[in-house]
Amino acid sequence: MNLRAYRNEIRWTIVVLVLAVLGVVALWPRDAEQQPTATNAPAPPPAAKPVDPQQRAAAALEPCPTGEGGPAQLAGITGSCQADGKPVDVGSAVAGEPTLINVWATWCGPCRTELPALQAYAEQPGAIRVLGVQVQSDPADGLDLLTELRVHFPNVHDGDNRIRAALKAPTVLPISYVVTGTGEVRRIDPPVAFETPDEVRAAVERTLGRQ
């Protein structure tokens, strides 16, 4: 083999090797580089803001009621009392006498209208006990809203959605229930937001069968 042919063979060998390397790089799976990002777990939701004791003092909520017995569907279902942050058994809290349970959230516009109407009703002679259940919203924000609206009837924060699930509450808020003296849970229908204490009283009396 003469020198020129030998050099040509070397050149073609180098060209083939370069092309082979380029082919391997082009075909290398990109997923391997992206895999760490793609398999990362989604960021957890932000933790609830800590409740300042001064917020509880400013809200001046009534203590959460306690009792014995109560409706079976709420037995053992606990929430956090907004008055002091302690656990409260909702079944026991509504035992012993008729109770109006109102489910609300801070992001719910109609709830802002209804909560003061419920407070005005709770202050009337002959009103049944009222218990608020805050869902799907931060307890600290709930205390601020109750303070702003001057609502003082007892409230429970439903942090794990267990109370709402036990009540089989729909996604639309607000929604209210009446627990009878015998422990039967009755939803107030139609589920409209109350604007006045008289509307609350009429719905309660109707649901209890007094009208």
Automatic annotation (TrEMBL):
Record's keyword terms, sorted: Cytochrome c-type biogenesis, Disulfide bond, Membrane, Redox-active center, Signal-anchor, Transmembrane, Transmembrane helix
Listed transmembrane segments: 12-29
PROSITE patterns (UniProt xref): THIOREDOXIN_1, THIOREDOXIN_2
Positions of region (Disordered): 35-56
Gene3D superfamilies found in the cross-reference section: Glutaredoxin
Localization per record: Cell envelope
Segments forming domain Thioredoxin: 37-209
Organism: Saccharopolyspora oryzae
Name of the protein described by the UniProt record: TlpA disulfide reductase family protein
